[in-house]
UniProtKB/TrEMBL annotation:
It comes from the Eukaryota. Signal peptide: none annotated. GO terms for cellular component: plasma membrane. The keyword Acetylation does not apply. This is Olfactory receptor. It holds the Pfam family 7tm_4. Coiled coil: none annotated. It comes from Myodes glareolus. The chain crosses the membrane at residues 24-47, 59-77, 97-119, 139-157, 199-225, 237-259, 271-291. SUPFAM superfamilies: Family A G protein-coupled receptor-like (SSF81321). Keywords: Cell membrane, G-protein coupled receptor, Membrane, Olfaction, Receptor, Sensory transduction, Transducer, Transmembrane, Transmembrane helix.
Length: 311
């Protein structure tokens, strides 16, 4: 990839601030968030694997979501931490490409997985007697496999099209990671075909899963309204509330960043929104799915109660 008369071999990540004191504060904050992300998601995965009461389709998807969040946050946060405390803000061209590819693949996979989780909730509420048959192990495994396959196939398309752009001028990325908006700002000329690719990927990886989720919830609401007792309705809706919060936060931030024309990108504003879905959201997910969940709380109490006797 040529820039001017020489080859671009690295990019410079500006991060959030050049002030040393602020960088140290940010380092402590991001380290704390990352530690909580690792602890929360790892604990949730262990609980789901160890407690037989959590061996259900819903928790199977939640466990996979926690695995995705562990991987997703690890694509960004270690580099952010290094950038905060090191004078070397550079990232190699290959490193930028790898970070871009894995972040896109994991983000797209999570979009599909959240759609699969919406279908799971629909199957559980609309016809609970046939739930086990409708969401068999084979069906659940296939949905997760399709989520990963679809996510990473589309990531290949996005990465190959992005890193064949002609980059010129500065190689400075005004962000804390390699992402579409700042890389477009460095491109000499963004072809209409590239913008078409972005809209195609937005439609296939974000808009389509969003529509599937909306359709699932329309049927879920219809099923809930058919329940006669108020207590039954509240109980049915409570099984969807965590997923609904997760979907709103995740899809809302992604649609805000990527559904606009490249000419309207505001790097400073987008940087804050990107921080939410790349760093904070993976930390929040375990809390969203466990704080109001009696089964997870009971499994957690059981785990700590058994722990002393095993030492």
């Amino acid at each position: 990839m040529e820039r001017g008369n020489h080859t671009v071999t690295e990019f410079i990540l500006l991060g959030f601030s050049t002030d040393p004191v602020m960088q140290m504060i940010l380092f402590v904050l991001f380290l704390g968030v990352y530690s909580l992300t690792l602890l929360g998601n790892t604990t949730l995965i262990i609980l789901i694997c160890n407690d037989s009461r959590l061996h259900t389709p819903m928790y199977f998807f939640i466990g996979n979501l926690s695995f995705l969040d562990l991987w997703y946050s690890s694509v960004y946060t270690p580099k952010i931490l290094v950038t905060c405390i090191s004078e070397d803000k550079s990232i190699s061209f290959a490193g930028c490409l790898s970070q871009f590819f894995f972040s896109a693949g994991l983000a797209y996979s999570e979009c599909y997985l959240l759609a699969a989780m919406a279908y799971d909730r629909y199957a559980a509420i609309s016809n609970p007697l046939l739930y086990a048959q409708a969401m068999s192990k084979k069906v659940c495994s296939s949905l997760v496999m399709y989520s990963y396959t679809g996510g990473f196939v589309n990531a290949i398309i996005l990465t190959s099209n992005t890193f064949t752009l002609d980059f010129c001028g500065d190689n400075i990325i005004d962000d804390f990671f390699c992402d579409v908006p700042p890389l477009i700002k460095l491109a000499c000329d963004v072809r209409e075909s590239y913008q078409s690719v972005l809209y195609f990927l937005l439609a296939s990886n974000v808009i389509t899963p969003t529509l599937l989720i909306l359709a699932s919830y329309i049927f879920i609401i219809a099923a809930i309204l058919r329940i006669r007792s108020t207590q039954g309705r509240l109980k049915a809706f409570s099984t969807c509330s965590s997923h609904l919060i997760s979907v709103t936060l995740y899809y809302g931030s992604i649609l805000y960043i990527y559904s606009r024309p490249s000419s309207s990108y505001s790097l400073e504003r987008d940087k804050m929104v990107s921080t939410f879905y790349t760093v904070l959201f993976p930390m929040l997910n375990p809390m969203i799915y466990s704080l109001r969940n009696k089964d997870v709380k009971e499994a957690l109490r059981k785990l700590f109660k058994l722990a002393p006797s095993n030492i």
